[in-house]
Amino acid sequence: MEPTTDPAELSVRQQLDELGIEYEIVPCDPDLADTAAFCEAYGYAPEDSANTIVVAGKSTPPVYAACVVLATTRLDVNGVVRRRLGVRKASFASADETRELTGMLIGGVTAFGLPPELPVWIDAAVMGRERIVLGGGSRSCKLIVVPEALLKIPSAEVVDQLAK
């Protein structure tokens, strides 16, 4: 495993180790961290890539959730996500909100190492893959895990039709 000093990467790896999850770290060029560029540059299939997207429910105070969806699907922000958050309006959290909430940059966000109060919703389609490639906590690496590893996160639950 590659040594790291990045606080978000350390938090991710600490949770993976605490939960007893087997994982592989794939180092990557930070300029190629966005899913499409990563898959093309490193030869991974987009259908095996899962994006972790932080969503914000427009309320006072705002409510948030982290949603894990396959890169080949689109998160249903205005339907399933909005209803689950219990708000009238929901949107993708901004890059600044995401960094403030998770300590991670877009392109490196993962379901692991998140604040314990942040719900993690996993689209049911993710669970059908043999393995998934996720952000690694920073733009410098990705994680490879079996989808079932996500279910070890205390705040995680599988949601049917979270993505289209």
How many structural domains in the coordinates? 1
CATH class: Alpha Beta
Instruction: Enumerate the spans where pLDDT stays under 50 for 5 or more consecutive residues.
Output: none
Overall pLDDT, averaged? 95
CATH architecture: Alpha-Beta Complex
CATH H-level superfamily: YbaK/aminoacyl-tRNA synthetase-associated domain
- Rounded to an integer in angstroms, the radius of gyration calculated over CA atoms is 15 Å
β-strand percent reads 15-25%
CATH topology descriptor: YbaK protein
Tally of contiguous helical segments? 4
Which secondary-structure class do the elements indicate? alpha/beta
Compute the number of strand runs: 8
Major sheet attributes: 5 strands, mixed
How would you describe the shape? globular
Question: Order of SSEs, N→C?
Answer: HEHEEHEHEEEE
Distance between the termini: 35 Å
Oligomer kind = single chain
Helix content: 10-25%
With strands numbered from the N-terminus, the spatial order across the biggest sheet is 4-2-3-5-8
Written account of the structure:
- The protein is of the alpha/beta class and 164 residues long.
- It has one domain (7-159): YbaK protein, CATH 3.90.960.
- Helix content is 23%, strand content 24%.
- It has helices at 7-18, 35-42, 77-85, 95-102, and strands at 24-27, 50-57, 63-70, 90-92, 120-123, 132-135, 141-145, 156-159.
- The strands form two sheets. It has a five-stranded mixed beta sheet with strand order 4-2-3-5-8. Strands 1-7-6 form a three-stranded antiparallel beta sheet, with no helix packed on it.
- Strand 2 and strand 3 (63-70) form a beta hairpin.
- The termini are far apart.
